Amino acid sequence: MRVELYMARKTAGSPDYQAHLSMLQQYLQRYDEIELSHEFPDIVHVFGAWDATAHKKLEQCHRLLIPTVLSPLGQLAPWHFPKHPTPTQTLQTSAQKQATQRASALIVWGGIEKQEMEKRKWNEQIHVIPNAVTTSMISPEEMAHETMKLYQEILEAHDQLTHQRIQEKLNIFPNDDSPEKEVCHALLYLRYQYHRRNIKKQTLQELNDTLNSLEYDEDVLNNMLEQLNEEQFAARIMQVLSEDYQLTEGFMPLDPLNDKQTQRIREAINTTSNI
Fold it and tell me: Cα–Cα distance between 75 and 105 in angstroms, integer?
């Protein structure tokens, strides 16, 4: 999995917070399952609270359907909330609440912060992973391992939900096991990856294999794509498959389309790996 670790410049100015990020980065890099990268991330881990830049990052990921983890670095403990807030502080709290709600999950350092978040009900997914920089309750290796496990859980849940939503969209068509619906599902999953600007080569390969091996009714499939308003996207994907996987027109449900939008699809293909 490709993981982006993001800490805003203001937060990174604290030696304590920077030490936590550096330690986590150092130990996460030891796992073969993880590649730390700012390009084509599968999940984004945001560090820090009360920072507009961090809030913007969470909002961007939310809009692009990229799952996120938020580590507030202890800044959502009860003593960080004023008892008698000024109007400005009330607005800041509202902004932090919205950002916290955007995250797929929270990592807090201790029970007090966890209780505060449970009381405020800003996010249901709250996980306690202590800071190995400041406590002997957990080793750096354990901290990284628990964090990696959370990444995996979030990605699995996110992908399951994505497929579930695609299936619900396809419920307008009868016959759940039809080959035409299988092709539509694959194309809608590619549409989701394109929305994230992270089309996986594996997903393209799987669709190419499906089109080469599956017997389907072209007229029925084209009618379904038209109802989904995805016929042009599908035609552009056919163009990409013809170029990259030598899919021939005899196995295409519709004619390929090569235009500016097709070029944007090409630019969204993650060429850094085969997964």
Answer: 16
